[in-house]
């Protein structure tokens, strides 16, 4: 498909989505976000793809929702169109998603990164939820995902002050899984995606589904859900293959069924 605000290209089994509105520091206009949704769904439906990486530029992952697009909107308009309601799409993607973040990841940019399953950050990446300084609050899950990732006191400090935080803070707090030299972030994210894509895809899908269930269920229900999913994997050829390969001291050949 022909996109105007993003570039898509696959690297082996990894689908790469590059946000590409350089003049606006990749501000997430509605058009851009609809294209991201479209690309995500296409990769999720593509059986040759096993993981998805989202990245921006060296200067900005994304500097937030498009403030120029939002500034004149009325309550009636944003309410009737359920503005930002379309953000849910990324949370329904079954395949693993990795954010490769350099530069600014602010507002909706930070929220988009937090919607991904894993965040790799360049050493100069800068995160933040500056919405309070615009007279609003995060609107795409920022208050909810930040508090789950880094706890109440830090989430409150960040959202109420609107101050940015560094890649080093983000990594220390557990929001980011790894910090890398800026020019290595994307390569390493693709490499991680490739490693994941080379494993049994139904097992990967179950693992992601089970971890995400932890955000919705009690510990007892979550462990029950996990155990049932675990048991269900014994219906797959990949379970037989994985375990017999171990016993026979050879590499497994996954067939994804
Ligand atoms: C629209 C934006 C933008 C944004 C930057 N630009 N961020 N346009 N929406 N969020 C545009 C600028 O207007 C400018 O265009 C160009 O990008 C370059 O930006 P500069 O400000 O000149 O660059 P710099 O001085 O380096 O400052 C970078 C910056 C600053 C610190 C990131 O741009 C900034 O504070 N941006 C806004 C960050 C923010 O508040 N984000 C939260 C948005 S609200 P022109 O044409 O003027 O040169 C939000 C709500 C979440 O995200 C709801 C869920 C989606």
Automatic annotation (TrEMBL):
Cellular component aspect of the GO annotation: mitochondrion
Enzyme Commission number, as recorded: 4.2.1.17
GO MF assignments: enoyl-CoA hydratase activity
One Gene Ontology term from the biological process aspect of the record: fatty acid beta-oxidation
First-level EC class: lyase
UniProt entry tagged with the keyword DNA repair: no
Name the UniProt record assigns to this protein: Probable enoyl-CoA hydratase, mitochondrial
Top-level lineage group: Eukaryota
Organism, as annotated: Funneliformis caledonium
UniProt KW keywords: Fatty acid metabolism, Lipid metabolism, Lyase, Membrane, Transmembrane, Transmembrane helix
The family this protein is said to belong to: Belongs to the enoyl-CoA hydratase/isomerase family.
């Amino acid at each position: 498909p022909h996109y105007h605000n993003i570039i898509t290209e696959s690297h082996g089994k990894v689908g790469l989505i590059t946000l590409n509105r350089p003049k606006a520091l990749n501000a997430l206009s509605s058009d851009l976000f609809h294209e991201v949704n479209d690309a995500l769904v296409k990769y999720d439906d593509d059986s040759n793809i096993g993981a998805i990486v989202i990245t921006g530029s060296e200067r900005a992952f994304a500097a937030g929702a498009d403030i120029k697009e939002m500034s004149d909107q009325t309550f009636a308009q944003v309410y009737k169109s359920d503005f930002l309601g379309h953000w849910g799409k990324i949370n329904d993607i079954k395949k693993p998603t990795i954010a490769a973040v350099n530069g600014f990841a602010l507002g909706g940019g930070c929220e988009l990164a937090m919607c991904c399953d894993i965040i790799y950050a360049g050493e100069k990446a800068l995160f933040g939820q500056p919405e309070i300084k615009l007279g609003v609050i995060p609107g795409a899950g920022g208050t909810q995902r930040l508090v789950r990732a880094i706890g109440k006191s830090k989430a409150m400090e960040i959202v109420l002050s609107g101050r940015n935080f560094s890649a080093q803070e983000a990594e220390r707090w557990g929001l980011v899984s790894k910090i890398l030299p800026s020019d290595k972030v994307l390569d390493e994210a693709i490499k991680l995606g490739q490693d994941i894509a080379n494993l049994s895809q139904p097992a990967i899908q179950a693992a992601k589904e089970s971890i995400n269930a932890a955000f919705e269920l009690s510990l007892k229900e979550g462990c029950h859900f996990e155990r049932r999913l675990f048991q269900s994997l014994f219906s797959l050829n990949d379970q037989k293959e994985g375990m017999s390969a171990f016993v026979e001291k050879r590499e497994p050949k996954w067939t994804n069924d």
